[in-house]
Write a structure and sequence with these properties.
One of its GO terms (biological process) is glutamyl-tRNA aminoacylation. The protein has five domains: 120 residues, Rossmann fold, CATH 3.40.50.620; 98 residues, Glutamyl-tRNA Synthetase, domain 3 (Alpha-Beta Complex); 81 residues, Glutamyl-trna Synthetase, Domain 2 (Glutamyl-tRNA Synthetase, domain 2); 41 residues; 72 residues, Arc Repressor Mutant, subunit A (Orthogonal Bundle), CATH 1.10.10.350. Helix content is 45%, strand content 12%. It contains 19 helices and twelve strands. Helix 1 links the parallel strand 1 and strand 2. The radius of gyration is 31 Å and the shape is elongated.
Length: 446
């Protein structure tokens, strides 16, 4: 295989959502798996809707996911290249001017539908004489420019779907240049893919028809075709498509709510594939699981509540080195024993703050039976404590008091932590220490 050079091309017109993460992670992981390169390309030619704050948010979202682009470009800075490509297509007779307004085109489509015809552009603009074009422009009309498609079947071997084809006779000639001289997505995408040497274009299946069009444009420009892959789209459990209006599923919203980025990445690419959705410990591990040939053709439905569970399961298996700096950012100068003790009881990393407070104190204890607590305190071994201390201590307390099961363990947990549930006390007791444990058994805040 040619060393892959892939790209993601988000529009900075809103916040990325988990559906966008599916496509960009497929590209990133493909490059990682095959030791390739990854380009972040901002599709910002729509200057009216593109905002710097959204471009900044995209970079932040990628960093949160652990995605580090090998290069980054903005299409708004490459307009001269698109102008040159448009001129080349005009000179070759593949780009022709059209003068219909949006309303006129809409009425034309409705008439075609009413007659049972496909709403395909009838190439009126192609039939205009030089005199007719001059007259329209004298009236103040400015042309938009359409690419003249060859009415033939275009095929390719899709990385996901296998042999694929589109009959271009069923398509309208696409608009490549608007009336105001600006460019929709199609031509800049083609020009950049060719100019930058993109080897693999991996994107959602909603681009299948676009691919047939872009192949023809690439061929008209004399460029080498990349490989194409079209994965199924991520939808909600009800089948609703994802969009930037679903703010709670934006990557920014998920990050702010404390969802683990590895869980987002895993759910985004494992849903709708032959691999079960499960926690991963790193992007390297995830890259080893993702194979485009194993992506299903069926819709990739996910339950957003599954993300909560997956995030917690992901957190539970993270090692201390992975979270140490994040814990410090939360104000927790924690140690590996603390992390190993509490991680299995966390839904969010931020929950660790509560357990750090419980370990360090002071806390309000719950001593329902002072005599039982006093007996337990008298049997508490001398330090140092280790993972065996809890077992030997509770055995001694059981022998002395006759308490068993919940009657033995619950009063001790409540006195030591102020909680009815939580991490194993065999791990917590050495962290709490003998001095604080004795005070808490005596009903003192410590």
């Amino acid at each position: 295989m040619t060393t892959p050079f892939v790209r993601t091309a988000p529009s900075p017109t809103g916040y990325l959502h988990i559906g966008n993460a599916r496509s960009l992670m497929f590209n990133w992981l493909f490059a990682k798996r095959h030791v390739g390169r990854f380009l972040l390309r901002y599709d910002d030619t729509d200057q009216a809707r593109s905002k710097p704050e959204f471009a900044d948010a995209i970079a932040e979202d990628l960093a949160w996911l652990g995605v580090v682009p090998d290069a980054s470009v903005k299409q708004s800075e490459r307009i001269a290249l698109y102008d040159g490509a448009a001129d080349k297509l005009r000179a070759a007779g593949r780009l022709y001017p059209c003068y219909e307004s949006a309303d006129e085109l809409d009425r034309k489509r409705k008439r075609q539908l009413a007659r049972g015809l496909p709403p395909v552009y009838d190439r009126t603009g192609l039939k205009l004489t030089a005199e007719e074009r001059a007259r329209l422009e004298a009236e103040g009309r400015k042309p938009h420019w359409r690419f003249l498609l060859d009415w033939e079947e275009v095929g390719w071997d899709d990385l996901v779907r296998g042999p694929s084809h589109v009959d271009c006779a069923s398509l309208s000639d696409p608009v490549l240049v608007r009336e105001d001289g600006t460019y929709p997505y199609t031509l800049p995408s083609v020009v950049d893919d060719l100019d930058m040497g993109i080897t693999h274009v991996i994107r959602g299946e909603d681009h299948v028809t676009n691919t047939a069009v872009q192949i023809q444009i690439m061929q008209a420009l004399g460029g080498a075709l990349p490989a194409f892959g079209h994965h199924n789209l991520l939808t909600t459990a009800s089948g609703e498509g994802l969009s930037k209006r679903l703010g709670h599923l934006s990557l920014r919203g998920l990050r702010e709510s404390g969802i683990e980025s590895l869980a987002v990445a895993a759910l985004a690419v494992l849903t709708g594939s032959s691999e079960a959705v499960r926690p991963v410990s790193s992007l390297d591990e995830l890259a080893g699981l993702v194979d485009l040939a194993h992506v299903s053709r069926a819709p990739a439905k996910f339950d957003e509540h599954e993300l909560e569970t997956l995030s917690a399961r992901t957190l539970h298996q993270l090692d201390f080195a992975t979270v140490e700096e994040r814990l410090k950012d939360l104000g927790i100068p924690a140690s590996e024993p603390f992390w190993l003790a509490v991680r299995g009881n966390l839904a969010r990393l931020s929950d660790a703050r509560d357990w750090w407070t419980i370990v360090e104190g002071p806390i309000e204890t719950q001593v329902a039976d002072p005599s039982f607590a006093a007996a337990a305190a008298s049997l508490l071994p001398a330090e140092p404590f280790d993972h065996t201390t809890w077992k030997s201590w509770t055995q001694a307390v059981a022998a002395e008091t006759g308490a068993k099961g919940k009657a033995l363990f619950m009063p001790l947990r409540q006195a030591l932590t102020g909680r009815d549930h939580g991490p194993e006390l065999a791990a917590l007791l050495p962290l709490i220490g003998r001095e604080k444990a004795l005070k808490r058994l005596a009903g003192e805040a410590a």
